Amino acid sequence: MSLPLSRERMLERMLAADPAYDGHFITGVISTGIYCLPSCRARKPKPENVVFHDSPRSARCAGLRPCLRCRPDDFYAGIHAEEARVEGLAALFRSSPAAIRNVAHLASVAGVSTSKLHELFRLHFHLPPAEWLARHRVAAARRLLLTSPRSVADIAFGVGFESLSAFGEQFRRWSGLTPGAYRRLPQEQVLRLTLPAGYPVAAILRDLGRDPQSLTSRVTGDTYTAALRLPSGPLAVRVEFGSGTATCTPVLPPDQSGVDGAEVDWGALHEILLRRLGLTADPGRFEAHVAPHPDLAPLLAGRRGLRLPLVADLFDGLLWAILGQQITFSLVCTLRRRLVRSAGREVGGGLWVPPSPEAVAALDEPALLALGLTRARAAALLNAARQVAGGRLSLDTLAAGTATRAERTLLGLPGIGPWSAQYVMLRALGFQDCLPLGDAALARELQHFFALDSRPDRQQTAALMGRFAPHRSLATLHFWHRFQTRKEMPHDHHSTAPADPGPDLSEPAPR
């Protein structure tokens, strides 16, 4: 093994976590048995425990294994090097939010220009870095407000906000509550979200109630009721929309009546409601992107403020994607209701909690075939459920990570193709620049919107939707809503394709 640098120089650059030296040498840590890139932001080892190698292969031959944080094998493969870089930045930020002062500092730490940083975050997180920082600072603050006795001011500065006014503004923007109101949730037992100006209550309720026979939720007037699966147990919640507010009241199952409200996982409930009501993303950037273009601006007509409601439960989103391949919307709703009755849990009032991965994993193929699933769909669902239940697939990790890794991981699941992967990323994981190619409702509405002679194929769909990047998830929702209001869902096609070539019918909106 021949290394081009002295040990002293490599130690210096390793301690500085200098990304400019990635690819020049590998840091091996004999005390942990791990090898890393020089830029790795994990806690630095003592110099006497460090050995250097010229390649990952050399490190592996010495009995070391790759670091899961900086992912040196990915870097040396040359395929996911930039992905590994932004994942390292995210890990550093989450371990110490106050360590990153602002976007310029983040770019400096990454060893790239601010323009390159914006490019990386758009590709891997589908967000501008400033918004990513603000959202994650607020998320860190929320965790501390419910678990720490520290003052609001101490928490605000501890997660990296430079002023209390900025903290309050960003907290309200991404939480729908003030920091004080959020901290009081366990005592008040009612969650009153302040809705953004122009929040489209009617459109959101229409989306939430697309399956009028749903067992897991229902819409009655201006009230949305849903059964949820929280870490603290199953729970029904009633959301009443008023003037600029959504009042959310837990409705405990009969076997939990009389329990102290403090036992409700308020942090998890709040996060689910933000997702379900479309409050995890701001449509303002999308609308500003579309409005100046005369041929695109009509998409906003009557739909300004439209937001993307995410599925409440990540596994339920994966379930919807698998059930929804190549069948009509009405049929996927029917299959899901059967599965809910078979593997879900009733919580009273005719509401059922969606099936957990463990409950689905406990089923077998004959049981799923009896519900009406095809053999291929049953196999794909069982495989996904068993991977999640067994801890081999973490949907929470995918949602918190990069879009590129999420897509690659989902495509690695048997029976999951490009449409299903993009659908899960769009409706469950919440990435904002997803495109479910092959979705017929989207293609049909593109044909109508752009006055095309024929329905666009995948290549043409990609080109047309490219004009909406990096906001293609919300653009897709706008086209779906246009399609739904323009004509009834079709019910004339049913394919039992073993894999996912992309559905040939309308998008199965998850509940």
Automatic annotation (TrEMBL):
Its cofactor is Zn(2+). This is DNA-3-methyladenine glycosylase II. Signal peptide: none annotated. It catalyses: Hydrolysis of alkylated DNA, releasing 3-methyladenine, 3-methylguanine, 7-methylguanine and 7-methyladenine. Residues 487-511 are annotated as: Disordered. It holds the Pfam family Ada_Zn_binding. Its EC number is 3.2.2.21. The gene is alkA. It comes from Deinococcus carri. Keywords: Activator, DNA damage, DNA repair, DNA-binding, Metal-binding, Methyltransferase, Transcription, Transcription regulation, Transferase, Zinc. Coiled coil: none annotated. It is an enzyme of class 3 (hydrolase). The keyword Transcription regulation applies. Residues 87-185 form the HTH araC/xylS-type domain.
